[in-house]
Amino acid sequence: MVETQHGVSFEEALQARQIFQIGKEDKLGYTEYTATFPKADGTISTIAFRDNVPSPYMTYTEGIVHIGTFMPKDIEPGTLPNVAISDTLAKSLQFVYAEEGCFDAVNTYDKGIFSYGFIQFSGGMGGSLNDFMLLLKIKYPETFAQCFGKYGIDVEEATPRAVVSVLDTEDNQELTSDAAWVYMMNNKQLTAAFIAAGSDMNVVSTQIEYIMYAYMNPAINSLIELEIAGTLHQGIPLHSIINSEMGIAAMVDLTIVMWVRKMNVLFKQAIEEVATEFGLTTIEDVKNIDERAVIQKIISYEDTKALTDRRLNKVLSSGMSFEKNTL
Question: CA angle, 207 as apex, 107 and 24 as ends, to 5°?
């Protein structure tokens, strides 16, 4: 038996993967795959996905798309671990993950190589999926072993991102980083393993918790500079101005789609313009700014409208509160 660093041998990983029975049917211009496997409750599940995805972002014709079936609305009350955050942050986070996709979604056709989960964590090019895998392994080692480890998938801590590896059972070699994700993209049994894992509640809760670490915390801890009535104020915590349920949801939502720096630029510009329009002349005045007006101002910017219009209008119509809070 060939020794590996994964805790399983090539032979054991190959055998474990056989739980996923893959069918394929050639269609007009693409291949449709089915994967049949037993679920944790003993029932048999069959899922379908396709390659040659008709998208302007397609990089790999052999890559597939599976939009998923397990959505945030399907989470039973009390089945996720409680996260120790304020009610305001909890409600904002709940809105954000409810507005995203399915927890078992997989996309392997674009430049991210292998994207997974309800906000499509990306594995390729050192993307966030690598750190998500590490967080899952640290928090729920048994779940990681059952969902990924026994199939020859592993992850190790590294800088700046964790590094995922996989056993190539055809050539008996261990692949890391992008090579590992390309292998998993092409191996439909491993693709199915990720889809199957997406209904495990520990995997789901880790996806949501990662949103806190990677997007919510950077958003609420960000600092901006503001020019108010001709005076420049530096190092102002954004959350000292934007701290309602709806405002925090908007901050986090924009951080997901454009990262924290661009989100900061938009809020800085909008806060300064709304402050001028409302005659706010001090930072203390600005801390009581109308957050709805700030969000509406961001929506009005034409250069980012494609990203902000639909998402922020959903925030405005969510029914969350605009009441100021202390986070």
Answer: 30
Token pair listed for 181: 């994700």
Q: Are 264 and 180 contained in the same domain?
A: no
Query: Is residue 322 domain-resident?
Result: no
What crossing angle do the helices spanning 291-299 and 245-278 adopt, rounded to 10°? 90
Closest CA to 204 of 298, 300, 98: 98
CA separation for the pair 298, 247 (Å, rounded): 12
Residue where a domain stops, chosen among 212, 231, 260? 212
The 10s digit of each residue's pLDDT in 153-183 is 999 999 999 999 999 999 999 999 999 999 9
Q: Which of 212, 239, 273 is the last residue of a domain?
A: 212
Quickly list DSSP for 80-121: S------HHHHHHHHHHHHTS--TT-EE-SSTTSSEETTTTE
The single-letter code of the amino acid at 7 is G
What residues have CB less than 8 Å from 231, skipping those under 6 apart? none
d(CA 260, CA 82): 26
pLDDT tens by residue, 176-214 = 999 999 999 999 999 999 999 999 999 999 999 998 888
| Contact between 219 and 258 (Cβ < 8 Å) | no
Name the pTM for this structure. 0.86
Please, what is the Cα angle at 275 between 273 and 277, to 5 degrees?
70
